[in-house]
CBS domain-containing protein
Amino acid sequence: MKQHKTVRDVMHAHAVCIDGLTTVEEAIRIAREQEVKAIIVNKRDEHDEFGIVLMNDIAKKVLAKNRAPSRVNVYEIMTKPALSVSPDMNVKYCARLFERFGISRAPVIENGQVLGMVSYNLIVIYGMLAEEVESQHRKD
């Protein structure tokens, strides 16, 4: 029986969450220190949704528009709601979702809690290749 990889199998379990009032300057500092390419913006309350800020959002909405990173808050440039995925989703469907919505990474959320981050890179490196290697072992 073929075992399918899930988002939980390939996700990066380290996700950085910040408040929407954080400045872009501080968000860049945090991203650099934590070595992440995306930051989750916390919900303001239980009726709110998570947001997400990618480094390319900062490049397009702050740098390219000559705005001062110290004077722009993350909530001004974030994408909200962030399109999130379940940890139990098959990586094949996660990749299809990314393609359909034109995104390359998403937070992994279960029961309202951020568990980590998944990206195309992680899906390819740990999802596809691992299945290939496993099927090769079964053939031998």
Residues 10 and 26 are 29 Å apart (CA to CA). Residues 120-139 form the longest helix (20 residues).
